[in-house]
Specification:
By secondary structure, the protein is an alpha/beta fold. Helix content is 50%, strand content 17%.
């Protein structure tokens, strides 16, 4: 039953359609969460050395953010949680001290367990920095199944 519902709801998107959706979604979260180029970074949810879907998603995000505002430069995007933590904690700079918002990005959320773990992983280490952590995913399993 679940597989049938997924197949019936499957839609192939062209690159142009994905670009347009990426633009709309990112513009919406930038406005809704009041994200600013001087105090926000985007971070893929990847942990460890193996690439995952969040890295692929960041490829779309990089180009789209720059299209929204040319101040969204690649140095505000991090391909892993470890890379972002290194920037914020291990080698802090004047630029990293201005970060007040982190947007964790993933391509897909199933049960939400991984998302919760990644947020907690960051919160535990960054609690003293006073940053707000947001989570954005391209697709959520519960919405696909209409729960």
């Amino acid at each position: 039953m679940i597989i049938k519902r997924l197949i019936l709801q499957f839609k192939y998107l062209t690159n142009e359609e994905v670009d347009l959706l990426s633009f709309k979604f990112l513009k919406r979260i930038i406005d809704k969460w009041n994200l600013k180029t001087h105090n926000t970074i985007f971070v893929a949810t990847k942990l460890g050395s193996s690439p995952d879907g969040s890295n692929n998603f960041m490829g779309y995000v990089k180009d789209t953010l720059h299209e929204i505002d040319d101040e969204w430069t690649p140095n505000k995007l991090f391909t892993s949680i470890e890379e972002a933590k290194n920037f914020l904690l291990i080698s802090p700079t004047k630029k990293s001290s201005r970060v007040k918002k982190i947007v964790l990005m993933d391509d897909f959320v199933g049960t939400g367990k991984t998302a919760d773990e990644r947020i907690k992983h960051l919160e535990d280490d960054l609690i003293n920095l006073g940053v707000d952590i947001y989570f954005f995913a391209w697709q959520e399993w519960k919405k696909v199944l209409n729960f």
